[in-house]
Amino acid sequence: MDNAARETGASDVGTASRPRGDARRPTLAAVARAAGVAPSTASLAFSGAGPVAAETKERVLAVAAELGYDGPDPRARSLRRGRSGVVGVVLDDRLSDAFRDPVNVQTLDGIAEVAGAAGASLLLVRSPLDGAEGFGPLVDAPMDAVVLIGCNVRIDAAVAVLRRREIPVVAVEAEHIAGAVPIMLDNRDASRRGAEYLRDLGHTDVAVVALPIDPDRTRGPLTPELAGRATSFIALERLRGVHDVFPDAAAVVAGGSAVEEGRLAGATLFAGPSRPTAVVAQSDLLAVGVIVAALDAGLRVPQDVSVVGFDGIRIDDSLLHRSPVQTLTTLVQPAVQKGQAAARAALAMLEGEEPEPAAFRSELRVGDTVGPPPVH
User: Of 311, 254, 245, 302, nearest to 277 (Cα)?
Assistant: First the structure.
């Protein structure tokens, strides 16, 4: 037996009885030789991606089990493909907050569904603030492509980092970013339609409860100073939609998309004698909080104040137990479909194909939280 054969034989025999913790990993070629099949046949038997006779597949898997072979080494596969098998998802919220927002969860579900079917994993990263601070994961994390979700309007520096790494970028509901594939939602148009519905019912005194608008998540009335620090593209677009119909509509900014944040903002709106007859909340969770604040102030919904939300999420009945309200009037957005489109665009770029931008439309769903303004 020559040296090459001796080395091969020693490897095959040694791995048959070696403990799993041994650093020498059995190879697919060794499995193929022991099973008496070609390496390509052994590979197909493992992947299930091609026509292999059941008897052959059974024999290959039995030999693999005997040798302690668990499948292709993912590190070697990644090196051969020049990829990590990871799609990065950059969120504008703190990750702990992001998972409290059902819309973020639904969008991530859509991304995971498509990426997972292609064998990719997800890496979640928070959007960095202005400057280089927090760029770490974007600089060195192993990612094949990146999906930005609702990132702030000052993300250009972070995108420049990704471009230098030659990583494809998909931007979901973000201001135009050169080189990024856009996945858009009609935030401004949808908000305008909601405001027009209120106008058509006769409302003239309308206020907005806005999503966080600056990096510090400053709560309170939207002053010119706060507007000058605004970085949230989604919040700004939804505000513009209402101002297209009610140019003088006041706005109170919440510290997050949460029921309690909506309650705090609503309490501010209903504290004075000149309260609005209708409130447009920039998320359904904020809208529920506004309804709670209205009830706390002794107001009826919709007889004394109308409330419109945005998102179309399922509202837990317990959140509205104090109110006769059954269904929220809201703009229903296709969050899962947004995520699916983003993942398809990212995967297309990885395969050298032309990615498809996408634009989605929200639908006004009329519930029982909106009615004509009260007659005084």
Answer: 302
Residues 350 and 145: beta-carbon distance below 8 Å: yes
Q: In sequence order, what E strands does 72-129 have?
A: 86-91, 121-126
pTM summary value = 0.76
Same domain, 110 and 121: yes
Determine the structural domain holding residue 271 and report its residue range: 187-332
192 shares its domain with 327: yes
Q: Model confidence over 112-129: pLDDT tens digits?
A: 999 888 888 888 887 765
SS3 at position 71 = coil
pLDDT digits (tens, 9 = 90+) for 127-162: 765 444 556 667 777 888 999 887 776 666 677 778
End-to-end CA distance of the chain: 104
Task: Please give the distance of CA 330 from its chain centroid, rounded to a whole number.
Answer: 20
Instruction: Name which of 6-15, 48-57, 346-355 the model is least confident about.
Output: 6-15
Tell me how far CA of residue 80 lies from CA of 32, 73, 140, 168, in angstroms: 20, 11, 20, 19
Same domain assignment for residues 284 and 195:
yes
